[in-house]
Input
Amino acid sequence: MNLAHWLHQTARARPLHPAIRKGEVLHATYEDFASQSCAIGQQLAARHGIIKGDRVALFTRNCTEYLEILYGVLWIGAVIVPINYKLHPREAAWIIDNARAAMVITEHGDVFGGDVPLPCPELGLTDFSSLPNANYQPPGPVAMEDVAWLFYTSGTTGRPKGVMITHRNIHAMAGSYTLDVDSVGPDDVSLYAAPMSHGAGLYNFQFVRAGACHLIPPSQGFDPAEIAVLGQRFGNLVFFAAPTMIKRLVEYAKTEGYDGSGIRTVIYGGGPMYLADINEALRVLGPKFVQIYGQGESPMTITALPRELVADRDHPKAEARRVSVGFAQTCVTLRVVNDAMEDVPSGETGEIVLRGNSVMAGYWDNPEATRKTLQDGWLKTGDMGRLDEDGFLTLTDRSKDVIISGGSNIYPREVEEVLLTHPDVFEVSVVGAADADWGEVVVAFIVFEQGRTCDPAVLDQWCKSQIASFKKPKRYEVLTALPKNSYGKVLKTELRQRL
Output
C-alpha cells in the first residue's frame, strides 16, 4: 500500500484538523495537505512527465512545503531523494546525477548556477505552491517492495551510497515506533528542528497516520529558546534531536530557568550520549527522553531505550542500561557476531548484524556494496558492540572510521581527498577526536610538500569550496610523516592515541 494513502485516509477522517504550521501560523489543515499533495503529484506527472519509479530530488531547508512535495511525489508512485541541505552544491549535484533524478526541487530554483551542471531540471518551491486541484484522486497503487525514499549515506570510499528504502521498510519503522519508542495521537505536535532529509523527516509518517500536527519552527532549524516558546504555546511537543542539540537545550534551560514544560518526548540518537549529559538532561528537563539506534540501511529501527528505562534509577543495572542503546526493536532480529557470522557470548564485543522488514532493499545501482552489506538476509552494520544477558546493546566502536559530529556523519576519506588536492599537501589522514559539545570533531594530520607550508585558514577555505562546511577539520596537526605499517597503510589508531 502506498504510504501516501495514510495522508489520504487521515484527510477523510479529520479534514479540518491542523496539519502543518510554521510557528504560530497555520499553513494547512489535513484536507488542505492532502489536496495540495495530490495537486503536486498531478503537476509532476502532467507538466514534467514524472512517472512511477522516477526519482525526484529535494534539496532545501525544513519548510512547510517539504511534506507536501514529499507526499506529492509518493502520490504518483515516484521516489523521493531527500538531500541534506548543508551539503555543498557540488556534493548535491553528484547525488542527483547518481540517482538519475528526473528533477530537483530547491528553495529558489537557482541554487546550482552555471558552475554546477545538472542532468535534470531545477525548480523552486514556488512552482509547487497554491496549485488548483479540480480532480482529486486517491494515491496511485504501489507494491510494498517498491522504493519510496532513496537516502544517500556515505561509506568508507568517501562516495555516498543510495539506500533504497521501500514502502514496506517505512511501514515497519512506523509500527515499531508505536510499539517501542512512543505513543502517537492526534493531539501530538511533531516539531522538525533537525533536518527533514534525515531521521526527523522519516518520522513524519506515523504522525500523519495519527493526524498529529507538524510544526516547522520559524528559524527552520534548532533554536532552544524557540523550542521553549513553541512547547509552552502548543504543548505535547515531540521531536528528534542529536545529543549535541539536547546539550544546548539543557544549557538554555539552566540559564533561563526553563523546566521543559510543553515538551512531551525528545527522541535522541545519531551519536554517543555521554552518561553525565543524559543525567543532567533528566535532572533539568525531567523524564522526557527516549533513545534509538538505527542506520540509513535500517532507518531508526535497530534498538530503542524507552523513557522509563532512560529515567530509571532503581534497577541494579540502571546506569549501565542508560549508557546502552537499549534492546532490539520489534521489527528486527538482532545479533552480535564474529567474522564467521557466529554469535559471540554475552558481554563480548562483535559486529552488530540484523534482519527484518525495516532492512533496506539494497544500495542503488551498487550491487557490489549490497553483496558486502547484506549477507543471507543479514545487514552487517559495521558497528561493534556487545549484548548483555538481558538483551541490552552497548556500542563500543565503529569499524568504519565514520566521525559523528553533532549527529551528522562525516567520512574521513571524503575530507582527505579534498585536502590532498591542495598543492601544498603531500599526505593527510583524518580522524575523529572526542569533544564534549559535538561528540566528535574532525582532526586532520597533515604532511606538507617538502619546503612548503600552509595556513590553517587557507586549508579551511579550500575545504569549504568543495565540501560542506561542517565536514572541514576543526584542527590541523602537522607531521613530518604519517605512521604506517609494513604494507604502507596509515595507522589511524596511532594517530588517535596522539590525540
